[in-house]
Specification:
The structure is a homotetramer of 304-residue chains. In chain A, a hairpin with a 4-residue loop joins β6 and β7. The first copy, chain A, is 48% helix and 11% strand. With 304 residues, the first copy, chain A, is of the alpha+beta class. Chain A contains 15 helices and 8 strands. The two termini of chain A are 18 Å apart. Chains A, B, C, D: Its EC number is 3.5.1.2.
Amino acid sequence: MTSIPAILDEIRQKMACAEDRGKAASYIPELASADLQKFAISVCLPNGEQWSTGDSRTPFSIQSVSKVFTLAIALGRYGESLWRRVGREPTTKAFNSSQELEVRKGIPANPFVNAGAIVTTDMVLKGASPAEALGGILQFLRVAASEEDIHINRDIAASEKMTGHKNWALAHLLSAYGNLDHSCELTLGTYFHQCAIEMSCEELARSGRFLAGFGKKDDLVRQSSVKRINALMLTCGHYNGSGEFAYRVGIPAKSGVGGAILAIVPGKASIAVWSPGLDEYGNSLLGTAALEELSNRMEWSVFS
Amino acid sequence: MTSIPAILDEIRQKMACAEDRGKAASYIPELASADLQKFAISVCLPNGEQWSTGDSRTPFSIQSVSKVFTLAIALGRYGESLWRRVGREPTTKAFNSSQELEVRKGIPANPFVNAGAIVTTDMVLKGASPAEALGGILQFLRVAASEEDIHINRDIAASEKMTGHKNWALAHLLSAYGNLDHSCELTLGTYFHQCAIEMSCEELARSGRFLAGFGKKDDLVRQSSVKRINALMLTCGHYNGSGEFAYRVGIPAKSGVGGAILAIVPGKASIAVWSPGLDEYGNSLLGTAALEELSNRMEWSVFS
Amino acid sequence: MTSIPAILDEIRQKMACAEDRGKAASYIPELASADLQKFAISVCLPNGEQWSTGDSRTPFSIQSVSKVFTLAIALGRYGESLWRRVGREPTTKAFNSSQELEVRKGIPANPFVNAGAIVTTDMVLKGASPAEALGGILQFLRVAASEEDIHINRDIAASEKMTGHKNWALAHLLSAYGNLDHSCELTLGTYFHQCAIEMSCEELARSGRFLAGFGKKDDLVRQSSVKRINALMLTCGHYNGSGEFAYRVGIPAKSGVGGAILAIVPGKASIAVWSPGLDEYGNSLLGTAALEELSNRMEWSVFS
Amino acid sequence: MTSIPAILDEIRQKMACAEDRGKAASYIPELASADLQKFAISVCLPNGEQWSTGDSRTPFSIQSVSKVFTLAIALGRYGESLWRRVGREPTTKAFNSSQELEVRKGIPANPFVNAGAIVTTDMVLKGASPAEALGGILQFLRVAASEEDIHINRDIAASEKMTGHKNWALAHLLSAYGNLDHSCELTLGTYFHQCAIEMSCEELARSGRFLAGFGKKDDLVRQSSVKRINALMLTCGHYNGSGEFAYRVGIPAKSGVGGAILAIVPGKASIAVWSPGLDEYGNSLLGTAALEELSNRMEWSVFS
């Protein structure tokens, strides 16, 4: 069997040759200007080893991958009562759709569509100022990643706030249905900042170790939460492309519009990939291809 | 650690005491008259052992669990080209909804909603008479279950044919969009018979071994198909209750309106449960509860 | 003021020059082969005069225009209790959509979408054989049009029966929700025959006189029904193009996929136009343009 | 034939006895505290006569009735190009639904659902400050009603702004699709003020004379606009209750959540009714009943 570093390198080379590299998110200038040639992958193993290749130390905006950590914090704090305010079902609509939220009378389908993550952010905000809540999320990530140097890119947060009309629409709909405890401004302000957290691929891979069942897990969440977060990542982590991802890759994972994907092989690996070009669902095109290849070669699918 | 037989027995006793036992499917008399006290569970292990408890030899109508086997046969025959005619995404609508089929212009969301299974049945019918196609499905099951005595309950098939107006509507919609190669009568006739296959819990558990990676697997499907079928069972196997099931139980599984669930722990176990009372989504209420308990106690979730 | 015959002739000439003539319905050969050059218009006035131009004696399939007469018969027989089984709201979906029927749990939006007309046909069938029911509809038309020679084109009815999968889907959905008293075969068989009634433009214009408040009205329906049928034609008569038609033409009217439109100016005129080319909603393209011109020049809009 | 004043009085007495008086709008305190006993009706005739009964000089918030006047102004200024930004089709969704706006990619169904009226307000704002735009709308109303004393209730406007989360969601969705030229704050601020215009029933009836074809019509809109606005009122003026209203009353009309309805009988009458209790669609319950009675007794339906 080929070694992990060799496999990662082969994948990196293969991805470097890919002609269709997807399209960068275009809604804010900071993401639109992304270099589509960038690619990185990093893998953490239970024995403490970490293998990486490509631009693995370049920071990027983790965007929706942050939803995993906010969910972990909210689950830790509210337990099962969290599900009174958010569902846990996959959705057939886009990640920022208002339609379903109205049909579901203000209860988002799951915590990984934007509306659902706005609700978990609102829950984490309870009893805290936005600065404190964001501090708590950053602290969670620093412990998870064993890395102090994780920050928020305030330019990106500001751009999101200016242009995120669909998110503003979602927040106002949530308020209309009584599913926000704070003002739209406060909750969305926090949400935009959390999405603008910057990490490198190496840091992101380390921050997922607690979900794979190793690393600093005891400090972070209960084991019963771990398997539930992983289940949600598998069924809902790629929006309306989740079924496709499960079929092809077979690993719980969460994507972000900045081009990152965090993927968890329970008991075996925490993986981060990054490539800014997106597919039609808003998930990293080459990141998905790289994970498919890695899953196949390492036989890491949870389904076989 | 408690032994599997002991755990199964404890689960059986616990389920015997359950007050809310769900409601039997009411659309045909054969299912409506089901005894809600019935309960069985059976587990096959890689070492060839099989443990069962409850009414594990009582035959029941496997209904939608049959969709797994038809998909396996169709995947074997058509490979990835199958997905030109069926999607692989979860759905937010009921298992027999026409709405989504119209929105998706005749391409069913996945092979486990009724419309999708009607299409895979239509594919299996290609070049065969209904009798031959059904013979092939039965033969597949007999090999999988190592059991010659598996048959179709023709009364149930006839009842379905009479009253299955929603299925007739789906078949005509599929035809309207050009996604049936045979007449509605021929394809639906075959579909109704396949749903009316009768098996016991013991037989059903054995018939899933090829998906768990042991048993007669080599004769049946490629390993690459196995993990894909399991992925689809996890994301779509319980209709619009699939996210909930993944969250609570964490095992790929397919339910049937007769009260059966086939659940696969890759590499570890093939499980069948049966209890005729259904929850609001049409999945066995106590069957789900039993699998949740078993998954927790055996630590069989694929997500931890 | 120019005389009506002169205006009609000018309209006919204008329409003869139109380059975009729409597309004939393509789902059955009898309609697909229609000659797009055909055009006719006929107007009946309260004083008994009738003015026509173009191919005004050529018979065509009235298709959905028949829904007006079935509704008139059903309203006469059931009165307001009819509305327990059909709504009276416009729809945003296509005329043969199943989606809305499922959302509305088997109660069609209005009697002019296909599902609604299948229900009114089912009501007219009550206590009669299909031959008797069809005889009743034909008799109603013969009295209304003062014309004995009105018949059903049985080739068209047979073609519809073979290929009308969307209508079969609608009928089965209606049955699934308990909103058909007869079998799908019986009700749809009658429905397809009623749509295949053939009339000329001159006959069709005369058959609408009872809705305009003159002609053989006393024998046919109550005055209170007349205004209600007209209201439904205005809000729902052109399917999801009804708002557009009301805006441009401003007259209650019902279109058919054969290219006919029956338009009613209460107290002033009963108008039929025919041109087989359809617009995107399935309404006659030049027929609509001709009615818009006529309504403007005669100041016949009910809204000014 | 009974005289109009006598008929109006009989209607008022009948409505006074009604037990089911509907429910006042509850979303802002100013509307929630409405006195359900209030009732007024006023009728303007072509000969200049005006007949009124009940609380016909009590001012109320005209709310969505204002959409008619904003549309009239926008149509006058933009002509048919207005329809690039708004549709003219009835809708099956509630007046403040976001679902349809997303399906229609930011083009509201018609100018009488909230999203559509927000767009026409945005168009009227072009090249003007909010104060100037509101001044223009007020001036239009003052001329139409021949009444200088028409004002905005700023408490109501402020309440709407605080609590109108669904409207904020709509405005942000419109912005997301590029269908607002101004900021959400600016356009919605103007929209909320326009809805908070206060008029009495007598004033409102007079302000509709230009749509009925008499009064100060020449100063206000073209005749071609009049019939189009009336057509839109008939097909869309009562939201998803428009078909029902057309069926029962048969007159173009626009309702407001404050309990007012403006109804136009082309060439014959401009009518205003007011009763604050609403039906399930958000239309005045007794106002509708009163108009039905009046339409029947005066034979004012445009459909007969």
